Amino acid sequence: MTDLPASSAGSANSAGEQADGASARPMQERLVWLADHFKREWQIYVMLAPMIIWFLLFLYKPMYGLQIAFKDYSIFRGIVESPWVGLEHFETLFNNSQFLRAVKNTVIISALSLIFGFPVPIFLALMFNEILHALYRRTCQTIVYLPHFISTVIIAGIVITAFSPSAGIVNTIIGWIGIEPVYFLIKPEWFRPIFIGSGIWQEAGFSSIIFLAAIAGVNPSLYESAVVDGASRWQMMWKITIPSIMPTIIIMLIIRIGNLMEVGFELIILLYQPATYQTADVINTFIYRQGLQSGQYDLAAAAGLFNAVVAFVLVMAANSVSKRVSRTSLW
Amino acid sequence: MSAVVLKDMYKRFGAVQVVHGINLEVAAHEFVVLVGPSGCGKSTTLRMIAGLEEISEGILTIDGQTMNRIAPKDRDCAMVFQNYALYPHLNVAENIAFGLRIRRVKKDVIARSITEVAAILGLTEYLERRPADLSGGQRQRVAMGRAIVRHPKVFLFDEPLSNLDAKLRAQMRAEIRRLHNRLGVTSIYVTHDQIEAMTLADRIVVMNDGRIEQIGTPMDLFMNPVSTFVAGFIGSPPMNQFRGTLANDAEGASVTIGGGRISLPDTVPRDPGRDVIIGIRPEYVSLAAGEDTSPVSIKLDLVEPLGSEALLHAAIGEDPFIIKAETLGGVCHLSGLTEVHVPAEMVKVFDAETGRVLNQGPKR
User: A122 with A211: CB under 8 angstroms?
Assistant: First the structure.
């Protein structure tokens, strides 16, 4: 009432009507504006449609199935007819030592991948940027990009062959210095370094493209100005290139943290075996075994939901911290 | 002694030669402006002086020392870039101090220098701000601060005001000139804006297609352009140019333009029948007849009032003719104009084939 202008206040009733009218009017105006906007810019929305449809079909529609995490699901009764069981599956999961081990392994493998794997593409991009000879640079880039295009199955094959105790190159090399062959892939303590190392080998080069693109976007005048000021290449890298691509680094870090619970489980499934479950079994491989191999879809859905919620919290937290600390964020 | 000397300097990018052997001597404490259209080689020349581009041929000396093989950092030049080249992740103070930090100058000296430069440029209250939080003019000042703080032998400016609006440009122009008067550092300034060149320079170097067309003081270039290119480039609006043929009669040399006879100054060579281009500055066209003026019939098309002056867009025959006239508080007296008068002494005559001037005036 007090907010209304004196001329429009009148009686309590009329003031109320006017207030309702005032709130309805912007809504109507907004709808008109939206209709106009769609009429004018419909081509943009047509172009956007395939992506929205893809999201709806493959990411949002499956969410409907998430409810089986709270049901005693039977494929014969279907999702709707299966009875609700509340948080029973979550209780089962948190009392399951294999699940807790999978959570622990997921966190450890992800954290180690982040610590050792995240800086490598940045380092590669900085190094590529320093190579002045164009042909040499292109050759180096091609060599490090190539593993990305190799199928995970072949990567696993290469890793298994490389670490084979009989004919593997690693054992051959360590044999030269008198060390007995080691069957790396059945030793739990070697699984994580091999998995993380092969992951870096496969993806670091390709991931460096985004940082190279960020470097390419740095204003060349900054370097020229620094050259005139007397900066060396090393100083330019530290004082111009890295700070300039820091927003990209932070965005990539946030995305990476959001995927912290998503370990590349295809490679794990191809490399691990019961002997290495102790260090290799992660949430996704646990879900795969429980859901697909043992047919416990509800339990697997509960594990998957837990995974997604943790990932969501992580990405929110990383975004919020980044926004406060560096003024860079995803949203 | 000249501070900066360019001797027969060439620049080639592969097979393409963009600077064709230029010679220039810039005296110590002088403010020289390189001006010319886009692609004329002025920025390339400046970058060769800074060491950002290799000199393909020729010699560059600064304070008598040959600089061709000297690294940019050791040339003791500071450069201000068109887009300011401020480090977005550093605040104003850190941007100003960047060059000093790189050179490992002591912290207390850096702090003193920042305070001093910020005071000169009016940046004291913005020292903690980042470039993104500054206006265009403030950013430009920071860029200048970064150059000043090093106390270089030579300032190099590469179109530093191009990104500013007209009002701010005029303001910053005056600030740059004041700063030069105060610091007296030898300055080489590149611009495509002839007004900037005229207002800032001790001497202007007009460049065209990788060559120097003319070097002179602003007034010298305005009054005595050596070519039709300079005549068309210097001055706003530029010099009117008409093609004609020299004639010689009892009253002296003349050219007939649009049916009207225009008397030429005595300094024009007597060479009847020679094809020429005559140049008439819009400012020197008179509305009233005077001593030794030639009447010219015009077709007035448009009057553009500018305040105290107006631009009259007219034509002589088919050739456009721009006249700058006083408004005297109104433009009504200009609207019905059919005849103007051209003073013979103010007409420049150029050879039609080479475009070079035939009646060079005295140096100004």
Answer: yes
